[in-house]
Amino acid sequence: MEFKIAVLAGDGIGPEVVLQAKKALQAIASVYEHDFIFEEALIGATAIERTGNPLPQQTLNLCLNTDAVLLGAIGDAKYNDNFDVKVRPEQGLLKLRKELGLFTNIRPIKPYRPLLNASPLKREIIQDTNFIIYRELTGGVYFGEKTTNEAGTYASDLCEYSENEIARIAHLAFQAAQKRKNKVTVVDKANVLETSRLWRKVVKEVGLSYPSVALDFLFVDNAAMQLIINPKKFDIILSENLFGDILSDEASVITGSIGLLASASLGDKKALFEPIHGTYSRAKGKNKANPIASVLSAAMMLEFFGLQTEADKVYEAVEKSIEYQVVTSDLKPDSNFGTNEVGDFISNYILNKDDLLYF
Ligand code: IPM
Ligand code: MN
């Protein structure tokens, strides 16, 4: 089959890790006889430097006209040292999510057995953890009206949600739970926030259509604690934009490295796949960054295309790289392997080039 994929490598280590994901996809294309047509475009700080715009129209048009988007990472330290700069890399990603209507962000958390000691959390606590965060991605405080006064002594960010924005992601969360352990946990701050109270009401209503799924609610402060005390008890965590963002970085600690966590962002028509990590600017160009989050994002893209066997092959290749310890230094401090070597191992495994697998 033929698929057209927009590749937005972005900033920092984005281009290096996306390259490994492309290698994995090319290997899949050759083994399973598919045609993946990659088209590159600018986003983030790189796009600001070249065009003045973090999401050039050309990039948006490309994304609207492809089967899926593969994104690396966006952001640059220089913007985080100066918040007076009005045009920022993050605006490119947020606008892209909004324009493509990507309201559901799916972030699976499952530690690999050989890495149970790579986490600072105790092995007994994290083993057998397996949950997915469903993070709302186009609403909430990220997209509400922002104001500041002229004196620079006042600022506001509005948090808004409508019934429909909550219901559509809730349906997807319940449907996912039905295929898993039949449990949805909503994370909110309903003791304080009106939007959270609306979330509770709407999710309860949606839940009536999924009687086999147990529904519970946690306040976000408590959830932050429960995630590291007893992560096993979660199946699907459903949350609004900001809470989902924060909890997913916290949850990455369970796996041993944020460099392992992939995500799928889905809308009614479009889909984008990206690691949950940032641009790790210090490691840029150093062959140091972990490419697995990007490779796994590509695997999620294959699932979205309906190519489950192919996706499973990528998952298997990643498992083997971990089993044989062909991993970057975030997972094994004395590792001799870099971004490229891990990417080579994965693509060679997919290609069945056994002679190239042992380093
Ligand atoms: C993420 C990132 C983004 C977010 C930033 C870069 C805007 O942290 O995808 O988790 O907050 O959504
Ligand atoms: Mn984040």
Strand order of the largest sheet: 2-1-3-12-11-4-5-10-8-9
Radius of gyration: 20 Å
- Regarding quaternary structure, what we see is single chain
Distance between the termini: 34 Å
* Broad shape: globular
Sequence of secondary-structure elements: EHEHHEHHEHEEEHEHEHEHEEHHH
Task: Pick out its properties.
single chain; about 350 residues; alpha/beta; Isopropylmalate Dehydrogenase; about 20% strand; binds 3-isopropylmalic acid; binds manganese (II) ion; Isopropylmalate_DH; amino-acid biosynthesis; magnesium ion binding
Question: How would you describe this protein?
Answer:
This protein is globular. It folds into 2 domains: 1-103 and 258-359, Isopropylmalate Dehydrogenase (3-Layer(aba) Sandwich); 119-255, Isopropylmalate Dehydrogenase, CATH 3.40.718.10. Strand 6 (146-148) and strand 7 (155-157) form a beta hairpin. It is an alpha/beta fold and 359 residues long. The protein contains 13 helices and 12 strands. It has helices spanning 14-32, 44-51, 57-64, 77-80, 89-99, 123-126, 163-178, 194-207, 220-229, 241-255, 292-304, 308-323, 339-350, and strands at 2-10, 35-40, 68-73, 104-109, 131-136, 146-148, 155-157, 183-188, 214-219, 236-239, 262-266, 271-275. Manganese (II) ion (MN) is lined by residues 245, 249, 276.
